[in-house]
Amino acid sequence: MTKTKTMKLAMLGMCFITSIQLAFSQQQNASSTPANSITAEQQQIIELSKDKWQWMADKDVDKLATLFHDKSKFVHMSGTWKKDEELDIIKTGRIWYKKADIHDVAIEIIGDNAIVWNRITLTADVRGNDAVTEFTVTEVYKKLNNDWKLLAMTFSSVRDTHVIEK
After folding, report:
1. Average pLDDT over the chain, rounded to whole?
2. DUF4440 domain spans which residues (predicted)?
3. Apex CA 104: angle with CA 98 and CA 107, to 5°?
4. pTM of the model
């Protein structure tokens, strides 16, 4: 084989390998792009929801009091109550939301309202006993004077195979 033919074959081989790598890279990028892109406003609310879980773990009732609307309601496995009771429960540690591992999030914004669904594993101390529970938590927010306020939060017990449809 001549030196020219060898170089042509080498160049052809390099082009072939480069095209395969490019095609593979494009396929990976396409599959990692979510079908439903998250807007900046949706991301802001998702971050607010995530911060809320940390404030609950830290028992930071001052930040939570600002986030929770005065007429907000909370639905738990053991009952339903309003803002003041929820804040008191967190402050006194009757329920200590130690950690919320967030597995999945979906969000919809409709006008000045936002609904966030979190599938979580919650580690909590409830009346002195540790509990680890799978939940889907539904949070309803309303934008008031350019701030998002939590109107409602409902804990639904689910199996770990539960999937939030987006």
Report:
1. 81
2. 45-150
3. 110
4. 0.74
The mean pLDDT of 134-142, rounded to a whole number, is 96
C-alpha angle 133/104/56, rounded to 5°?
55
How far, in Å, CA of 157 to CA of 72, rounded? 21
Q: In one letter, which amino acid is 139?
A: E
Q: How far is Cα 150 from Cα 65, in angstroms, rounded to an integer?
A: 10
> Which DSSP category does 36 fall into?
S
CATH assignment of 40-157, among 3.10.450.350, 3.20.20.140, 3.10.450.50, 3.30.70.330: 3.10.450.50
For the segment 50-101, what is each residue's pLDDT rounded down to a tens digit? 999 999 999 999 999 999 999 999 998 888 999 999 999 999 999 999 999 9
Residue 131 is encoded by which pair of tokens? 């509990």
Please provide the size of the chain in residues: 166
Q: Which amino acid is at 89?
A: I
